[in-house]
Amino acid sequence: MTRTGGNWEQIREEARRNRADRERSYREKALKMFPHVCGRCGREFSGKQLSELTVHHKDSDHDNNPPDGSNWELLCIYCHDNEHQRDQVAQSYEDAAPEKAVDGGVTHQPFAALGDLLKKKS
Fold this sequence. Notes:
Blueprint lengths: L4 H29 L19 E5 L14 E5 H20 L17 H8 L1
Antiparallel strand pairs: 1-2
């Protein structure tokens, strides 16, 4: 069965609603379980400011929501953004890192051709 563009849009909208409901439920649980303090900067939140406090998943898996809250920490929006930016930077370094030698030795030898260069100068 093929789906028309309208059906896909309905599916996407339903997925967005389900995600929002899921996020709302674990956020409410986390706010009841933990003090309203950012786990990084220590800023306290109350009243309307609570909207600036987010639930961060320690293992980055938004579907991992244990009832004891062990995968959550409350972070302010600024610290939460910083946390995810650090993850992105770390991933970019991992992606750009040269391959390690199988035996654990060094793969890059910056002076490997130095002997040949010195012979040419002589």
